[in-house]
Structures are given as structure tokens and as C-alpha cells.
Write a structure and sequence with these properties.
alpha+beta; 28 strands
């Protein structure tokens, strides 16, 4: 799905259309007051104060008709420049515009755009005429707090989108429908993958048996890969003393994202937001020689971050998450090789999940906002230069992003496109000279001297929560066989005549460690087949007279109307090969 903000022409078109929306609203609701109408990835919105009026779907239709009238009238759009006082005089009856103007500089040139009897503040640019805005669609409406502050008034927010051609608009609307169908929150409910409840709390998801099965497969998958690469997995507590985070620097730089302190006896405890401080202490627990390095400590660890209740979203943004975390303690001469190994692991994993659209981003500090970061310039310069050098020498294409670094060091972020077009960070690899210093970590070098290791923080799947949300949307809920909660659904045609053979096949598949279900309900065959499709089970076995009498299996793959009949041995070979090779069928 196209990102409107990334395309200059579409951005101009949509910002102009936001003004068209406001123009129509002003015609229909003369007392309307307007806050802001920015361009967003999906198009645009405008926040409007309509007094006691609450927008309905019928109102959207009325507004859309008025917008079409203005488009048809072909009103010229002109730019006007104003002094601050002139702007205040012009918009004196709109407190929202007055607020915007009063926050501008005294000598700042303020621009507005006029089309017929409507004028609105805007930096621009805009299209030349309203006739260029005919390919629009109002999408939805909602309430929105003024300035995003829950203490302020709720305004009416109207969303829309505009394209240059009707074909582009239609394609975008189809993409939006596809995105709705792929929404992991919708599919998570339909497929019984996860749930939430107000008695548990916002952002605290509960994984149901189906979702838990997928998660266990993901955990086993990445753990086995890491163990083969020499990782040592540990378990560490989800609670820690505030002192731990004061040493690490998280208390000064991350406290606002942590849950409040719990005071017990003489201790102050907090839920951990990440695992690196614990792993620093595990390394420090033993003496290490330079020959021992690299030491790779991994953990599938629950972490807790205090997200605002309005910001939590399904599995994408939660308050408790489980990270696929690891920390590599390396000598300086091992940095390049270990970062290379991490990237190779990332790409190996992406191959298994058919992730092909990704970019490497080198996330650096914001030099104009240094209070966000721990340490001094010398350490930061060394870490950033080293990360840049290694990535360049390894031949990876990357782009740089200031202000996206962790507070303790630069990082390689792998940005991927989701199935619905969102750009998200999935995997990370961070270079850290800071925490070894703060925790006084050492190893004995070849000369017998104690020296500092360098730490590489890395997460391959990120959090299982966000990765699960990504997979649900990518596969549209139809997981490949190796991940599917139920891999095979056995459906006897007639319970009286075929149930015994169905049970025989059920036991056969179970003995081969397959996740199998026997649908022996007293329901019509068509009903059971449709339900198997609704549950997106990869294989439905339909067993009747021929299958029973000849010892065969007839299967239908999810997404296909073709029924294939094979021997029991052939079916076992087929499904076991698909699981082994992690075959992905795009539906």
C-alpha cells in the first residue's frame, strides 16, 4: 500500500484536499472551527470543532457531495502572505487558528491559502485549482483530543485520501480493504490466537492455545538456530532493583518508559524494560580470558514498558513483550566478524519467512540533543565510526538516520515493509562501549592485563509479539504448515462408515508428531469443510469409501479447490518435507 507522505505530488494533492474538506464543512456547518489538517501515510485528516455536533456516516456523505460541488466549480487556489498581526485579525474568531498563530515568531511570514469564500492557514504548497481534487474519498471519522491531550476537548476528526487518477484511487481503496482483512487484531480474534480483557489491563495480551502453539514454534526455531551458533541461553528475573538501572544508565534515560517503583522491605524494585543489565552481571560473574571471547548470552525474556493506554495496539505495541534478545561480549578485533555473523543470521531467518523487502538503517545520535544519550563524545564517535566502518567493509548498503540510536550506542536497524505497507523495525544490532564501562566489565588479554570487552546487543525476531503481528498480516492468518496451530484436519464423510478409518489416520499422523484434529461432529460434510477453510488449516483430509477401502488419503490444501488422492506414505512424505523446508504457500 502506497505511503502518501513519501510522494511529493501526492502529499501536495492530499494537503490541498484537506482544505477542500474544510471548505465543504464550513459551507455545511458555518460555526465550525478548525485545528489542523496534516498529510499522513494513508492520506489526510482534519480535526474540527463542531460544537455539540457529532459526525455520522450520513454526514460524511453530505460533506463529500459538497466537496464535489466545489471541485466542479473549479475554484482557483491562491497563496496569501500575512504578518502575524494580519493573521490574528483575519482568524480572530477561530481560537484554534489563533493558538497556532500566537506560537509563531513575530517576524515570521505567515501564509494562507484561499479558494473562493474559504481561507485557511497553511505553509503549502497546494494545487492550482479545486478541479484537480476530484479523485478523493472520505474514509472514516472519529473523535480526537485537541493537541492529543486527554484533558482537552474532543474534536471531530475526518479522514480522507486523494489521488491523481480514479484508477489510482480505486487501487488504494482496494489496498485499504485488504489491509482491513489482514489486520492482526481482527484475525487474532477470528482464529483464537490471542485476547485481551479489561480486568487484566490494556496492552497485556493473553496468548490462546492456537497463538501459543505458533509462539512455541517460533521460540524453538530461533533458540535452536542460536544454540547451533554457540549462544548460551539463560533465564533472568523480570524484577530488579532500581540500583541496577542507575548503574546501567536506564534510570536517567529511560525511567519515563518504565513502570513505577515497587517498595518492599528495604528495596525499591521495578519491572525490567530490557535484559542487558542482567546479562552484564552474568558476564561479570566469572573471570574471562581473551581466549573465551566471544561469549554469546541469549534469552527469550519478558520485558515491560509503560505504554500509554491509548497507544497500545494488539500485539504490535504492548506493555509486556517477549524479546528474542542476546548480548555478545567480544574483543575489539572480533567486532567485524560478530556483526557479520549477526547479519548473516538475520538474513538466514528472513529467507525462512520469505522476507524480501528490507533496508539496513544505521541509527545514530542526534548531536543537537545530546542529553538523550549516556557517555561522552569520544565514546560515541568511536562507536559510530566503528559501526559505519564495519558495515562499509562488509559491503552492506545502508542509510543513516540521526536521532534513532539507543541511548548507549549506535545500532543497525533492519527496516521491513509489512503486508499492509507499514515501515517497521524488525531486527536490531547495536554496538556498545558504554555498558562495559559502567559495569566495569573486563577480560584478561594475551599480556595478562585486564581490558574492556565490547558488547553487541542484537534481536533477530525483535519481540515475539510484534513478529507474530507481522506474520499474521503477512500470511493473512494462513500460516505455513510448520507454524500452523493445526496442521491437518481430518473429516470423515460419514461417521457411521468412515469414522474408524479416520481415527486410524489420526493416530498415524499424531505418531509422526503432526498437530492434527479429527472433526467427528455430527454435522454435514459441507459445513465441516467450510469451517476448516475459515480456520485456515493447511490440509483438510476428506475420507470416504475409496480412501477407507484402498488405504488412501484425499486432501485439499487451504486456498485450493483441488482434491488430491495419495497413499498414506506419500502424504506423510509431502507434509514432512514441507515442514522440514519451511515451505510457504502464498494464498
Amino acid at each position: 500500500m502506497i505511503n502518501i507522505k513519501e510522494h511529493e505530488n501526492l502529499s501536495i494533492l492530499n494537503h490541498s484536499c484537506a482544505h477542500l474538506l474544510a471548505h465543504a464543512v464550513k459551507h455545511l456547518y458555518p460555526n465550525a472551527k478548525f485545528w489542523v489538517g496534516p498529510v499522513i501515510e494513508e492520506g489526510f485528516y482534519y480535526d474540527i470543532d463542531l460544537g455539540d455536533q457529532v459526525i455520522t456516516d450520513d454526514d460524511l456523505e453530505k460533506i463529500s457531495k459538497e466537496m464535489k460541488k466545489i471541485v466542479k466549480s473549479n475554484k482557483r487556489i491562491t497563496r496569501i502572505e500575512l504578518s502575524k498581526q494580519e493573521a490574528l485579525d483575519m482568524f480572530h474568531d477561530d481560537p484554534y487558528k489563533v493558538d497556532l498563530i500566537e506560537n509563531m515568531g513575530e517576524d515570521e511570514v505567515i501564509s494562507a491559502y484561499k479558494q473562493d469564500d474559504f481561507i485557511d492557514l497553511c505553509r503549502g504548497p497546494h494545487v492550482e485549482s479545486t478541479k484537480l481534487l476530484k479523485n478523493f474519498k472520505l474514509l472514516k471519522h472519529s473523535g480526537a483530543y485537541y493537541k492529543g491531550d486527554s484533558n482537552n476537548k474532543v474534536l471531530q476528526r475526518i479522514y480522507g485520501v486523494c489521488f491523481e487518477t480514479p484508477e489510482d484511487l480505486e487501487k488504494h481503496l482496494q489496498d485499504l480493504e485488504d489491509a482491513k482483512a489482514r489486520d492482526h487484531r481482527k484475525l487474532g480474534k477470528e482464529l483464537d490466537l490471542f485476547m485481551s480483557h479489561e480486568l487484566v489491563g490494556a496492552g497485556l495480551q493473553m496468548w490462546l492455545p492456537n497463538g501459543a502453539t505458533v509462539r512455541m514454534e517460533l521460540e524453538n526455531y530461533i533458540r535452536q538456530k542460536e544454540i547451533k551458533l554457540g549462544y548460551h541461553h539463560v533465564y533472568t528475573p523480570s524484577l530488579a532493583s532500581t540500583g541496577l538501572y542507575k548503574v546501567s544508565g536506564h534510570w536517567d534515560h529511560y525511567k519515563e518508559d518504565m513502570f513505577p517503583v515497587m517498595k518492599m522491605d528495604n528495596e525499591e524494585l521495578v519491572l525490567r524494560p530490557m535484559n542487558c543489565p542482567h546479562h552484564m552481571l552474568i558476564f561479570k560473574n566469572s573471570l574471562h580470558s581473551y581466549r573465551d571471547l566471544p561469549i554469546r548470552i541469549g534469552e527469550l525474556a519478558p520485558d515491560f514498558r509503560y505504554e500509554a493506554s491509548g497507544a497500545v495496539c494488539g500485539l504490535e505495541r504492548v506493555r509486556q513483550m517477549c524479546q528474542n534478545d542476546a548480548h555478545l561480549f567480544v574483543r575489539p578485533d572480533q567486532i567485524k566478524e560478530e556483526i557479520s555473523n549477526v547479519v548473516h543470521l538475520i538474513l538466514d531467518v528472513y529467507k525462512d519467512f520469505n522476507i524480501t523487502e528490507y533496508k539496513f538503517r544505521l541509527s545514530l545520535r542526534d548531536e543537537e540533543n545530546l542529553e538523550k544519550y549516556a557517555g561522552n563524545n569520544e565514546i560515541w564517535d568511536m562507536a559510530e565510526n566503528e559501526m559505519r566502518r564495519v558495515l562499509t567493509e562488509l559491503g552492506y548498503d545502508f542509510y543513516e538516520a540521526k536521532g534513532e540510536a539507543a541511548f548507549y550506542g549506535p545500532k543497525l536497524d533492519v527496516q521491513i515493509k509489512t503486508a499492509i505497507g507499514h515501515d517497521i523495525t524488525l531486527s536490531t544490532c547495536q554496538l556498545d562501549f558504554m555498558l562495559p564501562e559502567r559495569f566495569d566489565l573486563t577480560y584478561v588479554d594475551e599480556h595478562g592485563a585486564k581490558v574492556r570487552p565490547v558488547v553487541i546487543h542484537r534481536a533477530i525476531l525483535g519481540t515475539f509479539d510484534r513478529f507474530m503481528a507481522y506474520l499474521i498480516e503477512e500470511y493473512k492468518g494462513a500460516f505455513p504448515v510448520w507454524l500452523a496451530p493445526t496442521q491437518v484436519n481430518i473429516i470423515p464423510v460419514n461417521l457411521e462408515y468412515h469414522e474408524e478409518y479416520a481415527k486410524e489416520i489420526y493416530e498415524l499422523l499424531q505418531n509422526h508428531d503432526l498437530r492434527v484434529k479429527l472433526d467427528d461432529r455430527n454435522e454435514k460434510l459441507g459445513y465441516r469443510m467450510r469451517e476448516s477453510v475459515m480456520n485456515k488449516i493447511p490440509f483438510a483430509l476428506v475420507l470416504g469409501d475409496k480412501e477407507r477401502d484402498q488405504g488412501l488419503i484425499s486432501y485439499r490444501r487451504y486456498g485450493s479447490n483441488e482434491t488430491v488422492t495419495v497413499s498414506k506414505e506419500e502424504f506423510l512424505t509431502l507434509i514432512e518435507e514441507e515442514i522440514k523446508n519451511k515451505v510457504i504457500y502464498k494464498v
